Amino acid sequence: LDVDGAHYTHVIRACARAGEWERAEATLQRARENGLPLTHFAYAHVIDACEGANRSDVAMRVYGFGVQDGAIVHWKEEVMMTDNKVITRNATAARRREELAGERGVG
Questions:
Q1: pLDDT tens digits, residue range 36-52?
Q2: Is residue 74 pLDDT above 80, yes or no?
Q3: What is the C-alpha separation between 42 and 29, in angstroms, rounded?
Q4: Which residues of 26-44 are buried (b: 16+ CB within 10 A; e: fewer)?
Q5: What is the DSSP letter of 20?
Q6: Considering 18, 29, 33, 66, which has the largest number of Cβ atoms within 10 A of its Cβ?
Q7: Phi-psi category of residue 13: left, alpha or beta, with phi > 0 → left and psi -120 to 50 → alpha
Q8: What is the pLDDT of residue 73?
Q9: What distance in Å separates the CA atoms of residue 62 and residue 58, rounded to the nearest whole number?
Q10: Are 39 and 9 in contact (CB under 8 A)?
């Protein structure tokens, strides 16, 4: 079976849409390990899924892999910092919502 980066991207997208961020990330890593070229779409799907699951740490790591692999062009340092602050702020807000829900006995 001849599988290429596009096939992996379709699987990654399906996992991300289903909220399976761990599976999406594992699939991305498998493609990278096999040396398959991936476009920025594959990385973006994983990043979106991670952000949706409040896993900004994983999202930032995947972003770094995308830059390292040449799939994501990172050319403005202030953009990275802005994105990092936005991702961190979203993760902090989500943690606070969980704390408040726990204090109210909502769960």
A1: 999 999 999 999 999 99
A2: no
A3: 11
A4: ebbeebbeeebebebebbb
A5: -
A6: 66
A7: alpha
A8: 86
A9: 6
A10: yes
The reported pTM is: 0.68
Q: What is the pLDDT of residue 81?
A: 46
| Per-residue confidence (pLDDT) for residue 78, from 0 to 100 | 47
Asked if the model's pLDDT at residue 79 lies above 50, the reply is no
Distances 49 to 46, 53, 64, 73, 105 between C-alpha atoms, Å: 5, 6, 16, 20, 27
Query: What are the backbone angles phi and psi of residue 37, rounded to the nearest 5°?
Result: -75, 130
Helical H runs in the chain? 5-17, 21-33, 40-52, 56-69, 77-104
Q: Report residue 70 as tokens.
A: 């040449």
Sequence letter at residue 9: T
What confidence score (pLDDT) does residue 43 get? 96
